[in-house]
Structure formats: C-alpha cells, structure tokens
Amino acid sequence: MIKKILIANRGEIAIRVMRSCREMGIRSVAVYSEADRASAHVQYADEAYCIGPAASNESYLNYEKIISVAKETGADAIHPGYGFLSENAEFSNRCKEEGIIFIGPDAHAINTMGDKITARKTMIAAGVPVVPGTAKPIIDLDDAVETIHKIGLPVMVKASAGGGGKGMRLVEKEEDIISSVKAAKSEALAAFGNDAVYVEKYIDSPHHIEFQILADQHGNCIHLFERECSVQRRHQKVVEETPSPIMRPDVRAEMGRHAVAAAKAVNYAGAGTIEFITDDDLNYYFLEMNTRLQVEHPITEQVVGVDLVREQIHIANGEKLRFRQEDLTQHGHAIEVRVYAEDPDNNFMPSPGKIKHIHLPLGLGIRHDGYVYDGYEIPIYYDPMISKLVAWGNNRQEAIQRMKRALEVYSISGVKTSIPFLLRIMNVPDFQKGGYTTHFIQNHTEALKKPEEEHEELDDLAAIVSLVHHTNNLLKAAGPAASSNHESAWKQFGRKKAVSRL
Ligand code: MV4
Asked: Ligand 1 centroid to 441 CA: how many Å?
C-alpha cells in the first residue's frame, strides 16, 4: 500500500494532490526549485526538498534528481501532476525500474497516444471515429498533393509529434498546399525533432468536448462524462464546464463508450482524457488523448462526486475500480475559470510580481484551487496561472450566477489578472446561451474589451481590500493580540514538517 507520495510538481496542482494524500493518511513529499522556496506547496507538504535552480530543466524536469529524493525519503510513489514530467514515457519507465510507482499510465500508453499518427491508427482499429484524413504520415510532396486532393480542401496539416495545437497548419487554397506542408514539416522538425506530418479534413468552428476516464490495472474502464472546453485562447483553455450545454443523452452515452474503447485500446491505467471535436450537430471525432490528470479535472469532481486524485492513488495501488459505470451520474452543473497573472487589456501580457493582497471568494458552491498568498511573488519561470475558480450550481444558470458573484468579489492586488476578462465572458449573451464554439473569444473581441465603467468599479474594490489589509497590518504592528495575523493563517495551513535548505 502507498504510504508516502512525492509530488513532482509545484503550485496549485501540487497542493491539490497533497490534499487528497492528507485525507487518505498518506504522507506527502514536496520538491521545489530555488525560485519556489517560499511557495505554498513547500509549506503544505510533510517534507520538502530543494531539487535545483529555477529553470524547469534543472529542477521540475530533472527526473534523476527527483527519483533520488523519492528513494532517500522512502516515497512509494510519484505523482507528476500536469505538465512537467506528467506525459514523459521515459520517466514513467525510470520510476518502474527503480521500484517506485508512477501515478499515471505506463510508457506504452504514453508513447502510443503521444505520437498522433499512431494514436489515429490505434483509434481507427478500435472503432473510434477520427476526423476524415490520412492514416499514414505524408511521405513526400507529391504524396501530400494527392492525399489532400482526395480529402478535399480545406485541411489541417498536423505534426505527429505535436498536439495541443502545436505544429498545426490550416490549408485552404490549392496553391498553398506545397508551401504549407513544407513549412509544417520544417516547423515540426525544429520543435519536436520529428518531421512526420499527417492530414485531416478541416472542421470549421468546432466544439471541444472531452471525456474523463478512469481505468484500473485489471482491464476495467469507466468514463466520468464530458467537459466542454471550447472557450480557448491560443490553444489555452480559459473556461471549462460540465455538462456540455450542447450534449444530448444519446450522444453522451455513445461518446462515453468510444472514450472507454479508446483507453482500452492502449491498455490504459489511471485517469485520462479523450479529446473530441464535434460539429454543431454533435458529429464527433477523436483528436487526442491526454494521459494525465488535467487542469480542469475539478469540474468533473464537483458534478460526479468523485475525487479523481484519490481514485488515481487507488488505481496505482493495484486496486480495482471502486465504481461501475451505472453507479455514476452527473449532478448539477460546474464551471471553472483559470485565473492568470496577466493583463487581459494589454494583449494578455504576463504580469508576474508580488501579490500585495488576495481576497478569495467563498460561500455556497464555490471551490478555489490555488496556492498564492499575501506577499507571494509569482516567479517568472513558470506558467503564471494563479488559481482555478470553480462554481457549482443545481443547473447551468445557477452555476453562472455563482461564478459571477465569485468573480466580482475575487480581488488580487499587486499584479494584473484575468479576473475582469473572465467576468466579461460570463456576461456575454452567447456564453449564457451555451452552444458557443472554439471561435468564441475571437468572435466576441468587442464584448470582451474593457468597458470604461468597469475599471473604476474593480479598482474601488481593490482599493477597499487593500485598505482593509493595511488596517490589519497596523493592528498587527500594535501587538499580537490585536488582529488575526498571517502567522495564524499559516498555522492552519502547514503542519509539522522537515523543510531542507530553506
Ligand atoms: C482541428 C481543428 C479543425 N479541424 N482539426 C487544436 C488543438 C488540437 N488539439 C487540435 N486542434 C484543432 N484541430 C481539424 N481537423 C481545429 C482545432 C482547433 C481547436 C480545437 C479544440 C479547441 C480549440 C481549438 C482552437 C483552434 C483550432
């Protein structure tokens, strides 16, 4: 049985994993870079070890160092979170070789799904619908022209080693075929060291709908329904919700069966996500599988009532799935927004720096997965996501109302954040109607621009919060009994631990 888990990640997801560890009586080991000494995940863990300099390559991606910490501390398992080493087949293998449980799939599943041409072939063999296109890589330019003629323009040329929107090219005109394929190939070679590309029919204005799956090591697999992730900007998800506003029960059941078939085709074990694109009529096509716990997993947890990290750990322990498909239902509606330290009114420029004050929304139906605190300095080295705010409601309208209320009182001073932009999204009539596509943000640039009256209102709120904060500090300076200070907040947060080289 797993008694101690090393979390090979930082920020909100490291804390998210540790929360489940605590509930399960499992000890947690944090690793951190020199830039993350003051990071909350270090405080939250039972033990914490510095693994190197700020640069990810020398710390969070340095898997030999991470494995050595796991061995020294007697961790039975490593949870990789998302990003960093989470979809690294070599790392999964190295853990296995060292007798450490990797909380994620094996190298075979990661490799099969990581190579998009192999994934497509595997899905076709498993009877999962894929976008009409090639089953083989494009060999040469003559082959490309012939293939694209057969499929018919417009098409997407995609890098086999790509994914998540990297190494993709839309080809709309006959005269662009050769130059586009050439460019896609050289881009793919430069980015991934692999110039294999394939071609799919272009699906205009699709919806991105993904299915959460859980599979155990005994061949059982279930799905936990869908997430609608069509609100994206430059292939970064901005808002996710479940159920999808466009889903129908018959299609949901069928897509769910195909998601399970996709996972079974690679003998998958663990939590994973099958991404589909759909058209407005819910014709759907497999796009990719993400072989990790995803950023947006909390909305599924809220609606299905399953702790996905807890289930990952049970699966890694070798246990059988603890639910059957028919045990699971969707209850109510959940929406997640990703809050970033960036300036939505200046081309989403990253806005790292010191958080002067953060005031969190609370109350019925609100969940906040974050890690920053008053005085925390957001490092420049990593993704500037501050937190994920989740609103649950009995229905979609209630969830939107709660999300709006939460975003209105969520205040962060010291850095610019995407909070005002997220609030504007909630207020766009096409968002409220549902049925939006992946073009939502670009189709509503005007409605998503900063209106004149907005900034005054939000600045007022920030000013009040900052005044309250200032008053608190004055009280604190007046003596320990004068206020509830930050130390007591930290006491609630941390517990006895060993923090090395702090
Ligand atoms: C497509 C597509 C249209 N047709 N493939 C973008 C991310 C990667 N997972 C695949 N992507 C797309 N593939 C075909 N054949 C449109 C997209 C796409 C997209 C997909 C999901 C969510 C947002 C998107 C934004 C732009 C393009």
From this structure: 14
> Does residue 243 sit in the same domain as residue 184?
no
CA of 196 to the centre of ligand 1 (A): 18
Signed CA dihedral, 87, 160, 227, 106: sign only = negative
pLDDT on residue 7:
99
Q: What is the pLDDT of residues 451-487, one digit of tens each?
A: 987 754 455 566 566 666 656 655 555 555 434 444 3
Q: What is the mean pLDDT of residues 68-92?
A: 98
Pocket test for ligand 1, best of 134, 234, 277, 439 (most atoms within 8 A of CB): 277
Ligand 1 centroid, distance to 295 Cα (angstroms) = 18
In terms of domains, do 252 and 319 share one?
yes
Is the domain of 276 the same as that of 359? no
User: Per the structure block, which two tokens stand in for 476?
Assistant: 């604190």
Q: Is residue 440 in some structural domain?
A: no
354 and 461 share one domain: no
Strands 236-242 and 221-233: antiparallel
pLDDT at 163: 84
Structure tokens at 182: 């050439």
Judged against a pLDDT cut of 90, whether residue 225 lies above it is answered with yes
Shared domain check, 54 and 21: yes
Task: Locate 29 and state its tokens.
Answer: 């080991």
Q: Which residue has its alpha carbon closest to ligand 1 atom 20? A: 208
pLDDT greater than 80 at residue 86: yes
Atom of ligand 1 nearest to the CA of 204: 3
pLDDT in tens, 175-210: 999 999 999 999 999 999 999 999 999 999 999 999
Clarify whether residues 125 and 225 are in a common domain. Answer: yes
Q: Is the pLDDT of residue 500 over 50?
A: no
Are residue 393 and residue 496 in the same domain, yes or no? no
Instruction: Evaluate: CB of 221 within 6 angstroms of ligand 1.
Output: no
| Total structural domains within the chain | 5
**Separation CA 288–CA 276 (nearest Å):** 7
Asked if residue 398 lies in contact with residue 333, where contact means CB atoms within 8 angstroms, the answer is yes
Domain that holds residue 83: 4-96
Q: 249 CB contacts (<8 Å, ≥6 apart)?
A: none
CATH code of residue 25: 3.40.50.20
Q: What is the pLDDT of residues 271-319, one digit of tens each?
A: 999 999 999 999 999 999 999 999 999 999 999 999 999 999 999 999 9
Q: How far is the CA of 438 from the centre of ligand 1 (A)?
A: 8
Among 145, 171, 201, the domain boundary falls at: 201
Residue 450 lies in a domain: no
Question: Ligand 1 atom closest to Cα of 438?
Answer: 23
Same domain, 209 and 301: yes
431 part of a folded domain: no
Query: Quick one: tokens of 64?
Result: 């030999």
User: Is residue 369 within 8 Å of 388, Cβ to Cβ?
Assistant: yes
Please report whether residue 23 resides in a domain.
Answer: yes
